[in-house]
Amino acid sequence: MHRRLWALGLAVVVAATAGCSGSGGGGQARDTLVVYTGQAGDFQLNFNPYAPTQIEGPGTIYEPLFFYNIAKDAPPKPMLGTEFKWNADGTELSITLRDNVTWSDGEKFTSEDVKFTLDMVSKTAAINKTGFKGTTTAPDDTHVVIKFPEPSYMDGPQVLGQLWIMPEHIWKNYATPATEVNQNPVGTGPFQLGDFKAQSFTLKANPKYWGGEPAVKQIRYLSLSGNQAGVDALKAGSIDWQTGPIPDIKDIEKNYPGYKAVTLPLNQVALFTCSNAQLGCQGAQTDPAVRKAIYYGMNRTQINSLAFQNVNSEMSPGFTLQPRDTSLLSSKLTDRMAPMNPDVAKATELLTSAGYAKGPDGIFAKDGKPLALSVKVVAGWTDYITALETLSQQLLQIGIKITPQQLSWNEWADARGRGQFELLIDSVEQGPAPDPYYTYSYFFSTATTAPVGQAANPNFARFSNATVDNALAELKKTDRGNPARQPFYDAIQVELEKAMPYIPVLTGGIPNEYNDKAFTGWPTKDDLYAFPAVWKRPDASQVYMKLKPAGK
């Protein structure tokens, strides 16, 4: 999972990296890459790539069949699979596998591992975030065939690029794969688990990796908190790669010698709401009128300036990623883009029409209950915390009180998964190919949610809408680029704007700072071989494999 750039204290950072041979900015060739994924608080030992609280593994330890690069529209890169093809009507997918791959414990990788994994996913709702319904056969050691009950072209990138292949000889012993913590991961990937501590763990290069041993021999992951110390760590050269905002990022090469930055739009920042009372959600946010009032009460221009250094951009309430999906943006939306400035009159009209009345304290109330909501955020995510502090002041102008509640990442992730929240701030992420279908199928499909108390993955808002479900089913039957798909995109976008289970904030400009002096081979805007975010998986593993220590 993502997340952001927050560092602890320079002394702690330096101590955590003291084992590295040479500082990040020092120019001495070294083999350990120090990264920060946004983890706040202690790491919990869990390398299950299908668990919502996993800390690492997809791409580095466990691999997909192919790598789909969402940074640019390019053919998928062969990984454990070497080629694939669909039959004429899109109901059967045939895959050829590598025959020279071993698991990190020495066992041979075969088609039975792929079949086992796909079967495990298809019958375990809690880990089946793609809604996979195929039936898999393994005719021999290097081939698998997946049969679908209907044309399923859009399942291709999800099955091929977002399902992590697990070793049957180990995972067949786990009765509950969704909750298995996987403390001793065995994978086919370029890295293996090294040492593990609550504040730091390492992955070490797999010397028997089928693609060749990585030039980066060790990756050290740090758990940090506190923005300013992270900035100090960059200046000291103690961190090699992090994803998140820093002051003066436009002058990074001047202010942070040895570092460069690249910023690209990817995630869509939103207020997640537990929206569905029928699935157990409680609170005023279950009322669409309240959600839409919050939407119109935001001053997004101010939030972008105060919280995001103006690196974020406009966002559509239909959740097409802009500017990537400009051609798919529906003309049927009321707001093609969320307003950057507040509309107090519109917000007030929505609330009064829904039966709310403003009390003497200026806060709306209904049935004696004031419109007061808590919003959960991870302690240390200071851009999100600043956004919420700013928003809380803005919403008082429309008679809504929100109170930010800071939690450890583990507490926040658990509450998000189980629906035990009113509001929380997070990002809606993209799928394995550059198409909004995947965001819709992940976050807005009835198939990927669950009642409150059970783990949803990843429709955390508990949103369920028959029109959206039907449109997704139709989109699944045709391949990307077919103009017949647009009416179904239109139908989805209209329903999302109407219901707003995830309240749009801004399109996140994802800033990445990397140590170009200590390591070479980073993605750049001229060479986006993977999306450059340390928390983006499996993209990060592609970066790790491409990097080389400077001077070697």
TrEMBL record:
Keywords attached to this entry: Signal, Transport
Signal peptide span per the entry?
1-18
InterPro entries associated with the record: Peptide/Ni-bd (IPR030678), SBP_5 (IPR039424), SBP_5_dom (IPR000914)
Tell me the superkingdom of the source: Bacteria
Q: Does the keyword Repeat apply?
A: no
Q: Does the keyword Transport apply?
A: yes
Query: Cross-referenced SUPFAM superfamilies, in alphabetical order?
Result: Periplasmic binding protein-like II
Q: Which CDD domains match?
A: PBP2_TmCBP_oligosaccharides_like (cd08509)
Domain called Solute-binding protein family: residue spans: 76-447
State the family it belongs to. Belongs to the bacterial solute-binding protein 5 family.
**What name does UniProt use for this protein?**
ABC transporter substrate-binding protein
